[in-house]
C-alpha cells in the first residue's frame, strides 16, 4: 500500500502493525506528496491512502495497475478523486465524512463572527500598534450583529446543519438553503433540527434569492462542475451591503476576483475564508490579503487534535478494509451513475 502522508499515533501504529503482511510505502516529508513519487510508487499497489492534494485520476490508476482495490481519502470532500474512473475499475473509495463535522462547524462560527465583527481587521490594527491612534466614535470598528440574521446555506449537508445547530443560540431569525438533494433532506436531517425548528427553515429556490435575502451566506457545498464559481459577480451584486460570506467548502466555489472586487467596492461587508482558489499557493502580495474585511485562514477546518487523530485512524481503517473486502468506516457509494448535483 502507498500512504502519501505521515500519520499520527494510533493510526501509524495500526498501519505499522500490518507491515508483516503488507509492504507499506510511505511519503516521509512534511511537504505535500510529490506527484512523480506517487506515480512511481503506486505501481502494483493494492491500496492508496491520499490527501486532498493528491489527484486520483486515470493517470494514477493506470500507473497503479489492475490489482488496485481501494483508495482511502483523508477528507470528507472527494473532488480530487475521479469517481467514474474508480467505479469503472470497481475500486472502493473510503472517506471521513462524520468525524470532522464538529471541527468544521466550529470554524464556521468563528469565521462568521470574525467577518461580522471585523476580527481580522481589529487584530491587524492592534498588532501594527494603531490602537492608540484610533479616533473614538460610536461606530468605530462596528459591524452587523448576528442576532436577527437570516442565514443562507449554499449546500445544506452535515457540516451546514451542525453550523446551524451552533447558530440557533445566537438568535438567528431565519434559514434559507440550496441543496443538490432537496428530496433527501427529511432523511438527511442529521441532528433532528430541520423538522421542528423554532425558526423558519426554507428552500431558497435559487442562488439569486439566497444572495438577496441572506445576512450571512455560508458556502458548504461540494465542489462540482455546477458549483464552480457559483458565487461570482452576479451573486455579490445581489447581496446586501451589510452581508458577510463564509467559505468552509472548496475555494473554487467562490470566484476570487469577483470577491476582491465586491470587497473593494463595499458591495458586501466582509468575508471569512478557510479555503480559496489555488491554495496553498497564496503569496503575500495576493490581492485578497489586501482586503481588511476578509479573514483568510489556511484550510484549518478539520484541524482539531481530536479530529485529525480520528481522520487518520478512519483513513487507515478504510484502507485496510478496502484490501480485505470488509466494510469501511465510511465508503462513498460509487455503484450508481455519478450525478453532477445541480444548484
Ligand atoms: C482536509 C477537507 O481533508 O476533509 C476535507 O474535505 O477539506 C479537510 O478536512 C484536511 O485539511 C487535510 O488536508
Lay out the secondary structure.
Layout lengths: L1 E2 L5 H8 L8 E2 L8 H8 L4 E4 L7 H7 L5 E4 L9 H7 L2 E3 L6 H16 L2 H9 L22 E5 L3 H10 L6 E5 L22 E3 L3 H7 L2 E4 L13 H6 L5 E4 L8 H9 L5 E4 L20 E3 L8 H20 L19
Helix pairs in contact: 1-11, 2-3, 5-7
The structure holds 2-keto-D-gluconic acid (8YV).
Our estimate of the beta-strand percent is: 5-15%
Helix and strand run: EHEHEHEHEHHEHEEHEHEHEEH
User: Could you tell me which ligands this complex binds, including any ions or cofactors?
Assistant: 2-keto-D-gluconic acid
CATH topology of the largest domain: Rossmann fold
| Strand order in the largest sheet | 8-7-6-9-10-11-12
State the CATH class of the largest domain: Alpha Beta
Corresponding CATH architecture of the largest domain: 3-Layer(aba) Sandwich
CATH superfamily of the largest domain: NAD(P)-binding Rossmann-like Domain
Low-confidence stretches: none
* Count of structural domains: 2
Average pLDDT: 96
Assign a percent range to the helix content. 25-40%
Principal-axes geometry comes out as globular
For the record, give the distance between the C-alpha atoms at the N and C termini, rounded to a whole number: 38 Å
Largest sheet: 7 strands, parallel
Helical stretch tally:
11
Content-based structural category: alpha/beta
Task: Give a count of the beta strands, DSSP E runs of length 2 or more.
Answer: 12
GO cellular component, one term: cytosol
GO molecular function: glyoxylate reductase (NADPH) activity; hydroxypyruvate reductase [NAD(P)H] activity; NAD binding
Protein name: Glyoxylate reductase
Keywords: Oxidoreductase
